[in-house]
Amino acid sequence: MCGIVGYIGPKDVVPVLLEGLKKLEYRGYDSAGVAVAGGGGIRLCRVRGKVAALEECLGRAPIEGAYGLGHTRWATHGCPSEANAHPHVDCTGGIVVVHNGIIENYLALKTKLKAEGHVFRTETDTEVIAHLVEKHFSGSLEEAVRAALAEMEGAFAVGAIAVKDPGRIVAAKMGPPLVIGLGDGETIVSSDINPILAHTSRVAFLEDREMAVIDASGPRFLDFKGAPVEKKIERISWSPLMVEKQGFKHFMLKEIYEQPQVIRDTLMGRISLDRGEVLLAETGIPAEVFRDVRKAVIIACGTSSHAGLIGKYFLESLAGIPADVEYASEYRYRDFILDKDALVIVISQSGETADTLAALRAAKGRAAATLAVTNAVSSSIARESRGVLYTHAGPEIGVAATKTFTAQLTALALVALGLAQAKGAGTKEDRLAVIAELQRIPHKVERILHRAGAIEDLAQQFMAFSHFLYLGRWVNYPVAMEGALKLKEISYIHAEAYAGGEMKHGPIALIDEKMPTMALIPRDRVYDKMRSNIAEIKARAGFVIAAADENDAALREHVDAVIPLPATPPLLTPFLAVVPLQLFAYQITAKRGADVDQPRTWPSP
Ligand code: GLU
Fold first, then answer.
1. How far apart are the CA of 489 and the centre of ligand 1, in A?
2. What's the gap in Å between 136 CA and the centre of ligand 1?
3. What b-and-e string marks burial along 543-576, b requiring 16 or more CB atoms within 10 Å of the CB?
């Protein structure tokens, strides 16, 4: 995810772009840049770091122009650096593009363009767009962009300008959002409406496969084939803060709702349906290394370690290799024994978690390979691991991890499938079936989100309790741990997670009418066992909320409330079961009036 802004109008263009970028910084902030055009040339300023660094740079060396583009980046391809910062240029420097998203076929395009003589200067996928537009340019930027779009696969919002077609911005959308603000003699294009609202409340939202060609007289809307499109112009009355959160009350809620897209983005470009394969070459770890791995050691902290625990089930069930999951904060201080044929997987959203980094350093050189699963390109953990598989979740602003958890699950499922493939574990048909089911997960998460109102009602009913038990077995035991962590972290309600089978060894004594249970009970191999656990809790006057298969009518009379989950293969149920638990924790916290996005780290006096 990144932020794009563009402006044509009478105002001083650089300040308009900078103000816009500041409002888009929640979308990405590892590097930033602007390009302004006019008077027969294009001038660029790009920096590594936040928009404030760009502002400083422009303060030292001002640039001027009549119109321009700006970008704040959250890297997906190529480390955050000045060279990889957008805007990107073609060979001549006369064509400039900004991009949000991923060009899935960029490697194939890059190889072809290089063979045709184009010279690449960055590691980004975005640079291929500039060269593609250059290749097709013969005077009309609009036509060149359209021809380039026809060759691009993936998800993108693009803005382009060309010195040889002056006074024009061309914008196109296929996936990520793009909004056009129609002011009085001015037009602003942006990733969301926040930067626009300072200038106008009249906006048009581009749909997928639509483009806007903007000049001093305003925008023209077309589809990717060039046919004119009639756009509805809407009036917006939102406050800027609402827009930053896209209408959601808190970042955490917005991020919960981003999960279907985040899962799609993390799968993107990593599955070849034609070949029936998972593509893990981008990790940088050769397939032979994966083939010879005989076990996995997963090292992480907090929510990432819960994702790791679920990853253990994926690795065992799909790749047929044993996996241990370790807290980094414990592992780093141990006299651990690491097998030479083990794959060490370190998971960290930020890629900077100190304990995880220390554990990685201690493990390095003692295992077959180290693989990082992280959301931050070129973070320390990414740099210091032999290989890396990025989660494409975009920046997570809410302190409680939500979308990065499901993105980590997606990455771990891909790693397990990749290992299975390299080792020849299971049949190709089995793996293809799992891939197909993974691709169905985003839609099922959307269905859960559509029914969020019922979870809000439950939160209302249970918000006054002081203790909660979360119960799961098998692959949903770690989901119970994650649900309990979310609740305690943001609502400050005491919550404990247990594996169902452990209840009889002591914890059952806790159950009474003051200790409700959130039970995870999809239809899986431990379903009957969980039913027995629930019966024991009900016999002790405990309330039970059950997250269960939506078709499980029989369960309803044995519990107090049901959260329906769409049917999915048992191994993949954590992707679905965790979402209502995130919503439940969020709603209880919001209703209790605690600070959802920035929970306390110490009790208030
Ligand atoms: N793929 C582009 C890059 O890495 C854009 C990133 C994004 O939209 O997150 O620069």
1. 31
2. 23
3. bbbbbbbeebeebeeebbbbbbbbebebbbbbbb
Predicted local distance difference test score (pLDDT) of residue 245: 82
Per-residue pLDDT reduced to its tens digit, 128-146:
999 999 999 999 999 999 9
User: pLDDT tens digits for 281-318?
Assistant: 999 999 999 999 999 999 999 999 999 999 999 999 99
Instruction: Spell out the CATH class of 452-592.
Output: alpha beta
Cβ 1 under 6 angstroms from ligand 1: yes
Query: Which CATH superfamily includes the segment(s) 3-242?
Result: Aminohydrolase, N-terminal nucleophile (Ntn) domain (3.60.20.10)
* Ligand 1 centroid distance, CA of 76 (Å): 5
Q: Where are the domains of the chain?
A: 3-242, 251-446, 452-592
Percent of the chain with pLDDT over 70: 98
Classify domain 251-446 at the CATH class level.
alpha beta
Report how far ligand 1's centroid is from the alpha carbon of 344 (Å). 27
75 lines ligand 1 (CB under 6 A): yes
Burial 432-470 (b: 16+ CB within 10 A, else e): eebbebbeebbebbeebbeebeebbebbeebeebeebbb
For the Cβ of 194 lying below 6 angstroms from any atom of ligand 1, the answer is no
